[in-house]
Amino acid sequence: xxxxxxxxxxxxxxxxxxxxxxxxxxxxxxxxxxxxxxxxxxxxxxxxxxxxxxxxxxxxxxxxxxxxxxxxxxxxxxxxxxxxxxxxxxxxxxxxxxxxxxxxxxxxxxxxxxxxxxxxxxxxxxxxxxxxxxxxxxxxxxxxxxxxxxxxxxxxxxxxxxxxxxxxxxxxxxxxxxxxxxxxxxxxxxxxxxxxxxxxxxxxxxxxxxxxxxxxxxxxxxxxxxxxxxxxxxxxxxxxxxxxxxxxxxxxxxxxxxxxxxxxxxxxxxxxxxxxxxxxxxxxxxxxxxxxxxxxxxxxxxxxxxxxxxxxxxxxxxxxxxxxxxxxxxxxxxxxxxxxxxxxxxxxxxxxxxxxxxxxxxxxxxxxxxxxxxxxxxxxxxxxxxxxxxxxxxxxxxxxxxxxxxxxxxxxxxxxxxxxxxxxxxxxxxxxxxxxxxxxxxxxxxxxxxxxxxxxxxxxxxxxxxxxxxxxxxxxxxxxxxxxxxxxxxxxxxxxxxxxxxxxxxxx
Length: 508
Hints:
By secondary structure, the protein is mainly alpha-helical. It contains 24 helices and no strands.
């Protein structure tokens, strides 16, 4: 069978981490599959998926004549090797692979060996609370009884087996209901981005009233309980009830802590929960505990055994992003400036693992720090890295939006109080396409259009306009829906710097 999508193999190879590539390259060499290895190296060298270019790279290799077949075999080979690579790092992969082995023993009629294998699988599945695996084990046990023609089996034994299966089925259904609720909350959060109006708040409160969230006892398995706390914590976070959000995060961290050395999936969850905890602590202005948790997150790279490059990249990205965010929120711009070259060196080393969104967020932080410090040339350089990229999703839209606003103000500062009309028009064209603007954003942009664009405005009129804008923004940010906008840009401090005619760094 030939791969239906000709880009699948290219995408799979270019998704591999450094350690995965080394493992696969070594396997190909050891197993002596030279043609597979040559094809793997050729595709790895490509910048984009291009069949003609690939044939050119391969030159006169004889296997080029049946290239689609070899690509298919290499694709299947890579999947098998990745399965082997992650076998010891994921309990879920181990369980499912063990089930395949159990099926083989059943086909070979090796019932004694199968009983030992199922006992081990069930022990691990019970520890994990994996009802799906336990139900699959029950089905295999039923097949054994059928093969042995129910020798020595009573009707009561089958009733007990049925009760077990029904109980497991209920636990699976219960878990799926929690997953469904978590999916709905995630969809709402990703699409909304932040609470901008009362209807958003009502929706989150509606989620919290779901019967599944009344008591942890409603969740029948450890995984369902994790979803219970995840959904509650997420809702409270976006409702800005940080104390309750933090309670949920601490419970989730406790649940995953004992697995971080043995299960990479749970380690990834643990890292995400630590990241959320740091963010919440920073929002609560609890900088001491926030710094302590950043250190805890960063130590994962050295304290946890067998940490992959992908995990190291996530740890570094999350920890440095949160440290940078903390310095900005707490107005420690000198510390933030010192951190920039450290992060840039780290980006070079872990660029594949950091991720596109996290990288753009770093660039926005760098641009904002240089803007505050008055380094406008560097501000524009970092902003160009963001504005030249494609944007997908609410989160990237927010970064892009504030990059445009920061670009606007940087040009204003560079031209010492004068703003070019063409620059303003490009910003307004973009922002007009956004379905939602904060009232503070709108007030600021109206001010820019009506006041800063004037060529012959007097200093007295300009100062009065700045004071009027400051009063308006101060009034608007009293709303719980508007205060979050100040996270991206400190409008009040910038206005004060204009009124008091001082550098922004002396105001913040």
